[in-house]
Amino acid sequence: MFLPLLALLAVAEGTVTLTDPNRELDALPGISSSFNVIFPPALRRPDGYEHREALFGIPPYGGELAQNVYYAASDLCGDDAVDKTGNYPCIEQDSATGKCKDWQSPFILMVDRGDCTFVHKVRRAQQAGASAVIIADNSCMCDKQDVTEGHGGTCQHNSGQCTCTAEVQCESFFPIMADDGSGGDITIPSLLLHKQDADVIISQLESNTMVQVQLTWNLPAPDDRVEWDLWSNPTEPISENFQKTFRPAVEALGSSQFFTPHFYIYDGIANNCSHSNNCGTLCTNHGRYCAVDPDNNLSVGISGADVVAESLRRLCIWDTVGADGVGSKYWRYLEQFLEECYSPSKPNEPRDFPKTTDWSCATKVMKEVGIDSSMIESCINYSGGITNDVVNSRLKQEIDSKVENGVIIVPSTYVNRIAMRGTINDGSVFNTICAGFLDGTAPEICFQCSTCFDTAGCVHEGYCGGILPPSGSVSGATLVLSLLITIGVMGGGGYVYYRRTQREMRDQVRGILAEYMPLDDGVDGGTQMISKSGNMAQI
């Protein structure tokens, strides 16, 4: 009964809406795209159009996309095949059917926002052949005060006016295009455009005027150190194996990278968990800091409060041993904790929940990896603890960081403040980190292992797949000598083959001649021979 109260982030149409009206996600770090109109020139703006980039798909960072736009006049929420003839602009009609001709590839498709998820509509557009998707918002962006007090009327928002009516609702936050959990197959970029901006473009398209737009994705400014963050929680299974195996790569990259762990904590106050019910066992600090129950059983097993407690413990461990951005002892703690305190006692059995919530198990692991547990306990108490009805400064810091960075999916990895797309594993994270360095500043391990299939093995061995690493440049004399040896071997082999062929040919001729015996000269002066079978032959 308490789980719905934790829906701080209400996912509707893949949209994340904050329940706290005083917090707005104005600009998400890592959203580095720009959107503008090329034609008609009257719609072009010096600073482009404000928009929200999707948190799924694969943007071509460092590239741009300039193509014609077609308007589907649909939200693509159905499951039927997309009708490519019901489009705007209708530049040319098929004389046989009277319908508009299919969209001419390549194209960017504009669709309406509707009641299905963003992922669903973008997937359908991708299947129809679109190279990118623009989603036209159907709600006005209005002043927070207007929305809070229920005021209607006209809203002024940057590029133009948006009239709020009974049909057109107002919203004070620009929605985030979140992944609904199934967006791994989306490979095209997409964005959400304000209603008042989209309406202008749609008006041009509906009048059969061709509109061409440009999308550009800028790379973050790199340097000789890559900063990266991992957002997770102690019980999510997706990044568990990664956290158990990535330490050697972090140590190999050393000071050229700087890692910061984060933990996804819910704000219980925003969900009324700080009242008398305290949301059961989901929260600490009298309902202030909460986490979802990992086994969906509020009576037994690990509780949400246990998840918060372990999150705080790991934050304090990092604050104690992670000042260098590497934090070897932190990674060793993760390895040992996941093995000793959060693994099944036997294969194919449930996790050992009592050990996970037992402070003594965590203390034992900290001792094994060389962490002073008394310092960690002091850090926990100093930040506010987890039992009293007080603010915990460290947990509050995580909630603030989550909102400011627009983190909505766990686990999530950010490299140079750009959200990493795809599976979180050793290879993908290592390669993304190595790609984030300024040219010429990447450490040697990146050149040795970034293209290796077995990243962990390469980092451990220092080279890829049994191929020894280069020890330096090859001299010209060595190269020439190698070529001469190769040519000599090939030439010798060719000569041997030639002699063998000649010998076999001579043997064949002798065998044929041996079949005949010479006789007297024939009347025509030729020599007659008789074979052993009695047949005559003249040669």
From TrEMBL:
Topology in membrane: Single-pass membrane protein; Single-pass type I membrane protein
Intracellular or extracellular location(s): Endomembrane system; Membrane
Transmembrane feature ranges: 479-498
Leader sequence segment: 1-17
Superkingdom classification of source: Eukaryota
Keywords: Calcium, EGF-like domain, Glycoprotein, Membrane, Repeat, Signal, Transmembrane, Transmembrane helix
Keyword Translocase annotated: no
UniProt keyword Nuclease present: no
Annotated Vacuolar sorting receptor thioredoxin-like domain residues: 226-434
GO CC aspect terms: endomembrane system; membrane
Domain PA: 90-139
Any Pfam family hit: PA
Record Gene3D superfamilies: 3.50.30.30
Protein name: PA domain-containing protein
Annotated source species: Triparma laevis f. longispina
